[in-house]
Write a structure and sequence with these properties.
This protein is of the alpha+beta class. The chain is built from 5 helices and 6 strands; from the N terminus they run αββαβαβααββ. The protein has 2 domains: about 50 residues, Translation initiation factor 3 (IF-3), N-terminal domain (Ubiquitin-like (UB roll)), CATH 3.10.20.80; about 90 residues, Translation Initiation Factor IF3, CATH 3.30.110. The two termini are about 45 Å apart.
Length: about 150
């Protein structure tokens, strides 16, 4: 509020029983409105609540698998993944690599092969959104539902 409103504007607002509210002060002259400030704030609050109600909240679900999972077990996990994708949620598929000798000896390519197999099963139901970094301990991918 760099510039004071004119006495005429103040008098008009007072006569109408309303408030003089500065809308914009960016230009050379400030823009003011004569409005009921309480009603204005109430309508703003209602619009914000309506916008929050209409926005879609995308959740993140997580499914854990082992690197050497059997085919039937993977199919059961994938049913859950498809259910989550169908509800519009993103799915994080994480692989347990706990550093066992079996995983370290056999499993250099096991996790990437598993992720490729999972993406093949997902098909057009979802898209790969991100992968974990190679140096992370827990390997994971995030699949977003196809719109």
């Amino acid at each position: 509020m760099g510039v004071m409103p004119t006495p005429q504007a103040l008098q008009m607002a007072e006569d109408a029983g309303l408030d003089l509210v500065e809308i914009s002060s960016n230009g050379t002259t400030p823009v003011v409105k004569i409005i009921d400030y309480g009603k204005f704030k109430y309508e703003q609050k209602k619009r914000a609540a309506e916008a929050r109600k209409n926005q879609k909240n995308v959740g993140m679900k997580e499914v854990w698998v082992k690197p050497f999972i059997e085919e039937n077990d993977l199919n059961i996990k994938m049913k859950k993944v498809f259910e989550f994708l169908g509800q519009g949620d993103k799915v994080k598929i994480a692989v347990m690599t706990r550093g066992s000798k079996k995983v370290l000896a056999r499993g250099k390519d096991a996790v990437p092969e598993l992720f490729a197999r999972i993406m093949e099963l997902v098909g057009d139901r979802g898209t790969l959104e991100s992968k974990s970094k190679p140096d992370e301990r827990t390997k994971s991918i995030i699949i977003a539902p196809t719109k």
